[in-house]
Amino acid sequence: MNPTELVARLGHSVRMAALHSGRAGLLLWVTILALRKPKDWLAESFVQAKRIGVEGLGLVLLMGALSGVVMAQQTSQQLSPGLPVEIVAGGVVAGMLTELGPVLTAIVLAGRMGAGIGAELGTMKVTNQIDALLTLGRDPVVELVVPRVVAGTIILVPLVIMANAMGIFSGFAISTTLLGLTPDQYASGARGYYHHAALVYSLVKAVAFGFTITFVASYVGLRAGGGAAGVGRTATSAVVAIIVGIMILDVVLAPVYKALT
Q1: Residue 237: how many CA atoms within 13 Å on its side-chain side?
Q2: Choice among 30-34, 75-79, 92-96 with the minimum mean pLDDT
Q3: What helix, strand, coil percent values describe the chain, rounded to 5?
Q4: Cα–Cα distance between 64 and 238 in angstroms, integer?
Q5: Distance CA 130, CA 136 (A)
Q6: CA separation, residue 219 to residues 26, 142, 236 (Å)
């Protein structure tokens, strides 16, 4: 690739990034303005919250349980001779509250909920259903975007709480059955690590990730084009964009935990 092509590609990438940032900013602004009229989106938000929460609960609990088991095993294997075994419980609680609970829950729902929203709105876009809503004088953002964003932002909080609890419980189960800890030792280690800042940090992440999943999926879905193949690409693009957004947010939110502690 010669320097001219490299500069051209770089310029195109910068242009597209600026274009998508502007469009996403406009959608965000319209979404915020629509929140002033809850009667227009509240009922549908409950429907979406039930759909997201109930259908995703089993997978979230499974991932939480597996995460707790892995954290307990890995922490136990890293123990140096002479260190108290209670550290295993502290590692499980720390890992679940600050990282594994919110991040893995968000990634699981990105694959399930994000792809679903992107494909659903993408199908409506390529089949002109959104244009039909506009023709009828109805706002697609109020009817399609806001309920999903509100539902996802709120419902991820209890899902993360349950994932955290499941991870800590599964860590307790594996620690007391296979790793040689007594229930009192596990409880002591968990109490020794736990502090309210970690829980608050976990819930802040849940809110941020829930908004990111639903908003990004909605934006990508509304930009769909190209028929059935385009809908497939939209679902894939939504998942990739959401996971990248989650990881960037995870880095950005790290100073919040430091400030809370």
Answers
A1: 18
A2: 75-79
A3: 85, 0, 15
A4: 24
A5: 10
A6: 10, 13, 13
Average pLDDT, the chain: 86
Quick one: pLDDT at residue 147? 93
- At CB < 8 A and 24+ separation, what contacts does 72-79 make? 72/170, 72/171, 72/174, 72/175, 72/179, 73/174, 73/179, 76/175, 76/179
Token pair belonging to 257? 């935990």
Element (H, E) at 203: helix 196-222
**C-beta pairs of 195-198 under 8 Å, 24+ apart in sequence:** 195/261, 197/257, 197/260, 197/261, 198/93, 198/94, 198/97, 198/98, 198/257
Structure-token pair, residue 202: 């976990």
- The DSSP secondary-structure symbol of 80 reads P
**The pair of three-digit structure tokens given for residue 137, joined into one six-digit string:** 């004088």
What does the pLDDT look like over 125-181, one tens digit per residue?
Answer: 888 888 888 888 888 888 899 999 999 999 999 999 999 999 999 999 999 898 888
